[in-house]
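Handoff note, outgoing to incoming analyst
You'll be picking up this chain. Sequence as last confirmed:
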Amino acid sequence: MSSAASSTARCPVCEGADVRVFLERDRVPVHQNLRYDSLEAAMAAPAGRLRLGVCTACGFVYNTAFDPTLLSYGAQYENDQGHSGAFQAHLDALVERVLGADGVRGGVVVEVGCGQGQFLRRLVADPTAGVIGHGFDPSYRGEDQPPRLYFHREMYGPDSARVTADVLLCRHVIEHIPTPAPFLDSVASALAGSGYPRVYFETPDVRWIFEHKVYFDVFYEHCSYFSPGSIRAAFGRAGFDVTAVDRIFGGQYLWLEARRGTDGANRSALEPGALPVMALAFGDAEARWRISAAAALRDMAGPVAVWGAGAKGATYASLLDPDHQHIDCIVDINPGKQGAFLPGSGHPVLAPEALIGRGVRTVVLMNPNYRDEVAASLAALLPNPPTLIDA
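Most recent structure output, in case you need it:
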């Protein structure tokens, strides 16, 4: 552990005093999914500091230099992955899993941080489910009033207890929360009048990032990174009974299942496992990865396109081509991202059809889960598809 610097901060999950900083980046774009409609705005995007630390007591990983005042989630924030058939299959599997649990059908489902309600709409749309859905998100933009669906433009917390829940869902929110313990306490408080509902959380698995050396999967928007051990500790300390923590989506995500329990009775034993060692090895190898990955990018047959303008693609471009010298463009199937520019590096985001006539010879794939889908798209678009390689 000697290669990492100690932090004076206490762990936001277990309050452990031994937090080791293992990776530092200065002036990284604070937003990866905010839409910038001009090159000038993208190049002037606000920057912050990434200073990742790992708690040696519970294995929680977080940005010790995170400043939430730098972030501005709003109408220009765009991270919808639902345009992908592969991701739709993932969502379908989750819907089937949730609806297959006892007591869900015919119940009230609350989704915390529902976005524009894509997942909640799927649950309610099942004609056999009989589910009533309540989505909470201050950034919700819809004006429609679908049957059995209610959207609340507010943060979920103790004041939301007016809506009793049989099921509480929260997908890809907690990684954006710098203080997960108070957040989970707030969720537990809001559920106090709901008995003992089922609770489901989905979040990236930091072990997958470490195991696969995915350096472009750590970025400013995500300030909290969980492993099975640290997420069990966080929920146990908030009074939840954790019944399962599974790896899903090719191992990239964690799926936690729990019940609201008796406050203070469910404190899980702290089990950091190999996370501290993995974190230090990850940090030690970053400089070598940057050199080899940048060399590989320079050696690719050009023009080069990157497929995926989400957080992975934005971070990859920012780390390896900040001056926009080697990547011609970023491709994304989400119309909400097309026509925009990546923060920091200014790479243009184009629709797949824009590759026709552009002469792209190499496409860098940001997520291996989409390989078959992307390869099929390229083959359908171009008579001589470019070489598709994993980042």
